[in-house]
Write a structure and sequence with these properties.
Elements lengths: L7 H11 L9 H10 L45 E2 H18 L5 H21 L5 E6 L2 H5 L14 E5 L5 H17 L5 H20 L8 H7 L10 H15 L2 H10 L18 H13 L7 H13 L10 E2 L5 E2 L6 H20 L4 E3 L2 E4 L1 H16 L23 H4 L16 H4 L30 H4 L3 H16 L4
Antiparallel strand pairs: 1-2, 2-3, 4-5, 6-7
Family: Belongs to the glycosyl hydrolase 9 (cellulase E) family.
EC number: 3.2.1.4
Catalytic activity: Endohydrolysis of (1->4)-beta-D-glucosidic linkages in cellulose, lichenin and cereal beta-D-glucans
């Protein structure tokens, strides 16, 4: 079955019909709290006394030993036990952007919890750039890891360290790491100025590596064997260079980064109509981020970024002549490839950010013949995606674990699906976990706040941990959703 496509008129009618019932109410503050809590279930390293996800234990405590360095900490990216630096850095960037853009509207305790979640990632990312002319990009051999169904606390698979040394390129991972550290420096600026300065100093160092040694990190044969096919660079590294520069411009105000964005816009594809945003492709997010200076501060030299940003935003407006988004019959943004909710959460985040830019400057959006699209309209479109995820969908299912009365019980996640080390302290070997993977029983440990991959084009969802495309949570699905929920927790009726 091919994804549904609609005419512009049909889309407009569809959009009106699919708006949430005004009587439908979600507790966005509860969802926000749980979306942040999820990250504690993904922690690697030595867990602190205030760990709230009590079924988890310490893990990966020898990470980095073969390089005689400390690479403990950070996050497992999904339902496995590997630490992939590329999506982890993107996760940190999006959590930090959530604080930068929406932190003032977060409840005080959730802002604190979000900063803790960011720091768990950035403390690790600082370790990855701690040695001169070297960046650590991954810990854990995915082949041996994926051959086991094993708790992170028990893992005895190879904890291979993947490092890249100059002059070998790593522009994508280093550029994203620069973005993560720069964005996080802004998030911590008021609460921890010293840590903020450390993050910014290392962000500049990471960007220098990215720019000096241009190329994809998977150009390295050894790294490619470990990162692919999971987190290969498919779309080029140039977007990460611009993305890193954009965040450094935002964090520092330095005109050198402004000049970098201006000079390289065309050569690096920033003027092309690439309407993707996620761990591997930063183009749409880059355009929205940079356009802030144009929308709010009339920085004419960056006008091409604003034009591209608005072209992208128009594709998200169902009644716009430029609409290009595919939807499920129930109204969820759909793109082929699995883990579909990553598109819904990240694109909704960008809509809300751009709506804020327009709102603060008292402007509206024009999409071809459709003019005066207000920030409120963009927010309503984003809210429809949020409400679908939280349960307003044909399945009547919340795709956030632990939110609502009906949510996935058999997610594709090792730690969640195996008995907790607190309840079953005996070692469970690699293949001994298979009986739990193959079981039809619900997972014994609730990974509260986890967003699963979600349904595909027909709105159907089978609660089956073997179907990882639908049932596996990832940090980069949750991270942008934190900012989205922060907005709606403060403004439930946009």
């Amino acid at each position: 079955m091919k994804p549904l496509k609609f005419s512009h008129l049909t889309l407009f009618i569809f959009f009106l019909v699919m708006l949430p019932d005004p009587g439908t109410a979600h507790d966005y503050r509860e969802a926000l709290s749980k979306a942040i809590l999820f990250f504690e279930g993904q922690r690697s390293g030595y867990l602190p006394d205030d760990q709230r996800m009590k079924w988890r234990g310490h893990s990966g405590l020898s990470d980095g030993w073969d390089y005689n360095t400390d690479l403990t900490g950070g996050y497992y990216d999904a339902g496995d036990n590997v630490k992939f630096g590329f999506p982890m850095a993107f996760t940190a960037t999006m959590l930090a952007w959530s604080v930068v853009e929406f932190g003032d509207e977060m409840p005080r305790q959730e802002l604190w919890n979000c900063l803790v979640a960011i720091r768990w990632a950035t403390d690790y990312l600082l370790k990855t750039v701690s040695q001169p002319d070297r960046i650590f990009v991954q810990v854990g051999d995915p082949s041996s890891d994926h051959n086991c169904w094993e708790r992170p606390e028990d893992m005895d698979t190879d904890r291979t360290v993947y490092a890249i040394d100059a002059p070998n390129p790593a522009s994508d991972v280093a550029g994203e790491t620069a973005a993560a550290l720069a964005a996080s420096s802004m998030a911590f600026r008021s609460s921890d100025p010293g840590y903020s300065e450390t993050l910014l100093r290392n962000a500049i160092k990471a960007f220098q590596y990215a720019d000096n040694y241009r190329g994809a990190y998977t150009d390295n044969d050894h790294v490619r064997e470990g990162a692919c096919p999971y987190y290969c660079n498919f779309g080029g590294y140039q977007d990460e260079l611009l993305w890193g520069a954009a965040w450094l411009r935002r964090a520092t105000g330095d005109d050198d980064f402004l000049n970098y964005l201006q000079f390289n816009a065309k050569a690096f594809g920033a003027e092309e109509n690439i309407n993707e945003f996620g761990w591997e492709n930063k183009h749409a997010g880059l355009k929205v981020l940079v356009s802030k200076e144009v929308v709010e501060e009339s920085m004419v030299s960056l006008q091409s970024y604003r034009e591209s940003a608005e072209s992208f935003i128009c594709t998200l407006v169902p009644e716009s002549p430029a609409s290009q988004i595919q939807y499920t019959p129930g109204g969820l943004i759909y793109r082929p490839g699995g883990s579909n909710l990553q598109h819904s959460t990240s694109l909704s985040f960008l809509q809300l950010v751009y709506a804020n830019y327009l709102s603060r400057s008292s402007q509206t959006l024009t999409c071809g013949t459709l003019s005066d699209i207000t920030p409120a309209t963009l927010r309503r479109i984003a809210k429809r995606q949020v409400d679908y995820i939280l349960g307003d969908n044909p399945m009547g299912l919340s795709y956030m674990v632990g939110y609502g009365d009906h949510y996935p019980q058999r997610i594709h996640h090792r730690g969640s699906s195996l008995p907790s080390v607190k309840d079953h302290p005996q070692f469970i070997a690699c293949k001994e976990g298979s009986v739990y993977f193959n079981s039809s029983n619900p997972n014994p440990n609730l990974l509260v706040g986890a967003l699963v991959g979600g349904p595909e084009e027909d709105d159907e969802y089978e609660d089956d941990r073997a179907n990882f495309r639908k049932s596996e949570p990832t940090t980069y699905i949750n991270a942008p959703f934190v900012g989205v929920l922060a907005y709606f927790a403060a403004h439930p009726d946009p």
